[in-house]
Amino acid sequence: MSTSAAHICKGSFLTQLFAPRRRNQNTHVEPYIAHDHADDAPPPPPPPKDYKWASASTRRTFLGEEYNSKKSLLFDVDLDVLARPPQPASQPIPIIQKMPPRIPVKVNSPPTMPLTPEDKERRRLAAQRQSQLEKDAMLREEHERQETKRREKVEQERLQREEEEERKAILQEELRAAALRKARLERERREEEEQQLQELRERRRLEKERRLQHTKEIERWRAEQMQRAESQYSEKEEERRRSEEGRRMRIARMNEELFSTSRTDKMTGWVTVQPPNTLAWKRRYYTFELGHAESKMLLYGNPREVVKPLDILPLYGRIDSLAEWYEGFEELEAIPHSFALRFVDGVEWRMFADSAEEKDRLLVLLSEAAGIIL
Predict the structure, then answer these.
(1) Checking DSSP bridges between strand 348-352 and strand 338-343, what pairing results, if any?
(2) Which of 88, 186, 296, 303 has the fewest CB within 10 Å, making it most exposed?
(3) How many Å apart are CA 211 and CA 216, to the nearest integer?
């Protein structure tokens, strides 16, 4: 009975001795205990946390105690120390702190029987068979791995081919859609160009017809204008001819009245003149001095100031012609009773009288003083 208790105390001590070091120092190595193959059973589970604090009456025998009771002690430990009550967890155990280094010791094992050659051969053959089986298993596993890898590669290639075919199909579909879209756009462009060309032809045709119509209207208007101008010209020519005949008759009668009797009051009067190189018209009172080479026309501001003339026009041999408006002086057409006095040196005086009778009398006096025939 005492032996069982001593073994139990030793097992409990070893449990308390090695458990804290396993928790605190992971670098320690468990001691090697030689034992036979019969004791290769798995170690028992660790005791519960409150096992060491339970009372002897209530505590159940832990499986590790029975296990440890069958093993020889690793160190020679004093049993009086083991009889001490366990210290609290807050205070370190002096024995654990001063534990000597762990040195593996040999454990007495039961003697073994020597193997016979048949057993050795049998074990060798069994080891060879086991090695062969392991090699076969490794080869089989490698073959299966290679086969799996090959199948995965084949599957991957198949997926790649399917993806490539799908991509090509999508690309072909996109190309076909692009070709259809391009053909549609080209067809629409051709139709638009044809429509624009047709509209351009229609506009050109309408423009040509409009130009032809405008040309016809212009030609018709031009013909009407030419006809009207011809008729007006003929009318003006006829009127001018009648005017010339009437003027000649009036001049002849005026010439008889002026020079049949010497009347000086008939050689004076009013006239509006435009001197050369100016645009201003000036009203002047005129008188004539007839004497062949000394014939001249004197112009004054008014009849009361006849001492010094404002302008003197020498006439005899100096006058080239007495011209009407249609003889190169179209600007005088709008001025009634107007005419032009053209000198031989190119100087031109423009004049107009207050009436047709006054114009005829002035022309007779100018022609008589200049020595020309009207």
Answers:
(1) antiparallel
(2) 88
(3) 8
